[in-house]
Design brief:
Layout (H helix, E strand, L loop, with lengths): L2 E5 L8 H16 L3 E4 L5 H12 L4 E6 L14 E5 L2 H11 L2 E4 L4 H15 L7 E4 L6 H12 L5 H4 L3 E3 L2 H15 L11 H7 L1
Parallel strand pairs: 1-2, 1-5, 2-3, 3-4, 5-6, 6-7
Helix pairs in contact: 1-2
Bound molecules: adenosine monophosphate (AMP).
Length: 202
């Protein structure tokens, strides 16, 4: 069963339309027989996606740093919740557990995670699908900024294209599934950031 990591906002101040987007993505992940890798919080979009996956009969695996257990309200209904000592460990566990990454609108934490899986895919440290799902265009300035960097020669076209931009949950999951199918079953484990990943990618 493919595991999809969803990176998204943990803010409680956002337009509820984005919380609904997260719920829609979670429902679709479950309906299509995937499991969820999440940041292990139960607030905002992060909470909504995990709740919707479970309501749809899917499995959720959450990873949360001890220091954020209170702030992001640890997801006690997760099928498995791992509490880490720090953020780096959290990200490593999430990245390793995921077969693909779906990124929804979010803040600095979400951007950080998107840029990490995007740049490491561009470096061929992994070949997992990286898909942005942004129906409201919140992340469009980022997309345009990267295009400007391509125009300026700072980013190569294939690196910019290592992420796919979509505008609906259905489209996002279609891209994920096509990417997973193209890779075939039993792809070797990869690491987004670790030394093993660097060695495997070199
Ligand atoms: P945000 O997009 O800022 O609402 O954060 C979404 C999630 O990203 C939250 O669970 C944050 O804990 C997490 N996050 C915040 N900063 C970082 C970071 N530097 N690296 C990885 N995740 C982060």
């Amino acid at each position: 069963m493919p595991a999809i990591a969803v990176y998204c906002s943990a803010s409680e101040r956002i337009d509820p339309v984005h919380v609904q987007l997260a719920a829609d993505v979670g429902a679709l992940i479950a309906a299509r027989g995937h499991s969820l890798v999440s940041g292990g919080g139960s607030v905002s979009m992060m909470g909504a996606v995990a709740k919707a996956v479970r309501e749809g009969g899917g499995r959720t695996y959450g990873v949360i740093p001890r220091a954020l257990l209170e702030k992001e309200v640890g997801d006690r209904y997760a099928d498995e919740l791992v509490v880490t000592d720090g953020m780096r460990e959290r990200k490593g566990l999430m990245d390793d557990a995921a077969d693909a990454f779906v990124v929804l609108p979010g803040g600095l934490g979400t951007l950080e995670e998107l840029l990490e899986v995007w740049s490491s895919r561009a470096l061929a440290l992994h070949a997992k699908p990286v898909v942005v799902c942004d129906p409201t265009g919140v992340l469009d300035p980022l997309r345009r900024a990267v295009e400007a960097l391509v125009d300026g020669g700072f980013v190569q076209r294939p690196a910019a294209d290592a992420v796919t931009w979509t505008t609906s949950p259905e489209q996002a999951l279609d891209v994920v599934e096509a990417g997973l199918a193209a890779r075939g079953p039993g792809a070797a484990p990869e690491h987004v950031l670790t030394q093993e990943g660097l060695e495997a990618g070199s």
